[in-house]
């Protein structure tokens, strides 16, 4: 079996995570070396057991190394275009961290140069292999809740936004580009169509120039709506997912896939009794009794942890059709641009059809 | 002590509930009789122990009864204007079920006729005395979470929308008018300003001509946002309230006021460790450890259950300044109109300042 030799460009938090958690575990890959503008990261690479930690000290040295087949670009977001362009022209296949670019125009440039140089550009949309997401996707694909009416996809943190370049707009900081890109990508991948329109509110509670959270509402043809919610100052998180189907509701509480499905039982024998609720009475909002619902377990999906790198290998070596299509990545970029414009102008933005 | 003699106009689900649960318990009131266009409701009134159940068989008989001081109007929403106008002209003080009117223009007519005839018109915005709401309001008033950044107020039912007139638009059906009116009223009452703009999506999953649920986003000056969420086909409800403050998060799960407050502890000794989350790594979204948060109980408020009727008595008999101001009720009507227009046009609607 051919091994892919891959150099890590940008050996920070994410670059070292890729090395330690995926590349080291995957027999199809060798790390040919690293490059970082911060000299102290070479010691970190050595500590992490990277054999060739000291091999490259410039991007040009990687480009000139014939044994290096591919690069992982895990640098700040505003430098992706420069590195993708450079390594594509050097004939290296590329994995690029998300967001791949700061704009759809930048991404179009990247696609052009990669196409021209016949190299693979795969964006690290690894959260297509999140077990929670795939569990939702399976419900959708199998129509397990009837027609999906609404999806609420939330990631609510309690640690503020990271203190590094992720606080600055020109660097591509902010939570839309950090987490929104994943959560939107999941919907672009799962759903057959793009939203017709979006409405987005950015939050600036922490007082930085970038969004420290947001709510994005995506409206689809046929009545489906999707809310994407991201927070960084939330100490009692809501469930990761709530899915409202015509025939039932599913909740996934957390990354550990706690949760379940509840569906109603309709029968003449089951009467709805009104309840005292607050200072008033309600039948509409009365809780259902135990005998008027059926609870079931989530049909959990457990993807291969190294699926992303296996996919990259198959696309590069075996010319597999990529799962992460460039048209999808482009649509994610366009939805994020629409969301940003919506937040800035406080307007609903229509998504152009392609 | 003077007793108020009150006739119940519309002895359906809500009218009989008022009689059984509030008027019967309140020594300041006597039920002078009922009126319903459905003759079978007189038997229900007798069964419920209303002494004068058979006294009135037309609205004119109530108007002509000098001993009747006031009426409760609990008829379908599209008949409120007719009854309010009629009884105001007859000099009766009025409690009217919510929504008081189908439009702000209708409500303006009501105010004019009540003002001219010097009668009190009090809208049954009883959910200003909901314990859950007052518990949130107390946190707001006491600044218990620091600056409020976002409020999510939800009522998620599992019983569909009621099968009677509430399914029809011309009758004033739909969940915005049924529950939205309460949840918006709570915010109009609690917050010092109106939202600057609103965005609303109506849901039609049940296939009726009226909304069977909705999401309303209200944007306030200074960055506060409020989401109001109502569903009628949800089998795993989210918490009744999530309040995101600058200094902590509060959750009220349900009508029983389960929930609590969690605030962060910031200290150099507390390090945030990244976690494996799905197919990736995150420090931003890592859960906080037990020692990095402080949990506390909700400071629960327990209002007098009969507060609404006591308020009506005080306003009518003692000329107390009303807690439920007509300007507030008018603002609720205007926000609902803006929400409806927003949902229909899929546009953000600016709220006019007064």
Automatic annotation (TrEMBL), chains A, B:
The keyword DNA-binding does not apply. Gene3D superfamilies: Dihydrodipicolinate Reductase, domain 2, NAD(P)-binding Rossmann-like Domain. Residues 5-124 form the Gfo/Idh/MocA-like oxidoreductase N-terminal domain. InterPro entries: Gfo/Idh/MocA-like_OxRdtase_N (IPR000683), Gfo/Idh/MocA_oxidoreduct (IPR051317), GFO_IDH_MocA-like_dom (IPR055170), NAD(P)-bd_dom_sf (IPR036291). Pfam families: GFO_IDH_MocA, GFO_IDH_MocA_C3. Residues 133-250 form the GFO/IDH/MocA-like oxidoreductase domain. SUPFAM superfamilies: Glyceraldehyde-3-phosphate dehydrogenase-like, C-terminal domain, NAD(P)-binding Rossmann-fold domains. GO terms for molecular function: nucleotide binding; oxidoreductase activity. Keywords: Oxidoreductase. Belongs to the Gfo/Idh/MocA family. This is Gfo/Idh/MocA family oxidoreductase. It comes from Candidatus Borkfalkia ceftriaxoniphila.
């Amino acid at each position: 079996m051919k091994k892919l030799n891959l150099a890590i460009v940008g050996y920070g938090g994410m670059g070292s995570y890729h090395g330690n958690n995926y590349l080291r575990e995957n027999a199809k890959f060798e790390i040919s070396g690293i490059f970082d503008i911060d000299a102290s990261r070479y010691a970190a690479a050595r500590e992490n057991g990277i054999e060739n930690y000291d091999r490259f000290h410039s991007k040009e040295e990687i480009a000139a190394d014939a044994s290096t087949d591919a690069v992982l670009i895990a640098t700040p977001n505003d430098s992706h275009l420069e590195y993708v362009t450079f390594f594509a022209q050097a004939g290296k296949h590329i994995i690029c961290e998300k967001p791949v670019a700061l704009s759809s125009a930048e991404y179009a440039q990247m696609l052009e140069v990669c196409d021209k140089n016949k190299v693979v550009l795969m964006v690290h949309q690894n959260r297509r292999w999140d077990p929670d997401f795939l569990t939702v996707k399976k419900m959708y694909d199998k129509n397990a809740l009837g027609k999906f009416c609404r999806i609420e996809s939330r990631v609510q943190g309690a640690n503020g936004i990271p203190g590094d370049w992720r606080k600055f707009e020109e660097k591509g900081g902010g939570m839309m580009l950090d987490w929104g890109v994943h959560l939107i990508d999941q919907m672009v991948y799962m759903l057959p169509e793009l939203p017709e329109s979006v409405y987005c509110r950015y939050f600036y509670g922490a007082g930085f120039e970038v969004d420290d959270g947001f709510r994005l509402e995506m409206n689809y043809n046929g009545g489906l709506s999707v809310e994407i919610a991201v927070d960084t100052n939330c100490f009692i998180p809501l469930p990761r997912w709530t899915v409202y189907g015509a025939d039932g509701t599913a909740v996934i509480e957390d990354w550990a896939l706690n949760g379940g499905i509840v569906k109603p039982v309709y029968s003449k024998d089951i009467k709805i009794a009104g309840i005292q609720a607050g200072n008033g009475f309600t039948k509409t909002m009365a809780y259902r009794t135990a005998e008027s619902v059926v609870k079931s377990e989530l049909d959990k999906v457990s993807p291969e942890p190294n699926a992303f790198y296996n996919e990259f290998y198959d696309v590069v070596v075996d010319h597999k059709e990529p799962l992460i299509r460039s048209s999808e990545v482009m649509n994610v970029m366009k939805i994020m641009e629409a969301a940003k414009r919506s937040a800035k102008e406080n307007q609903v933005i229509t998504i152009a059809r392609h």
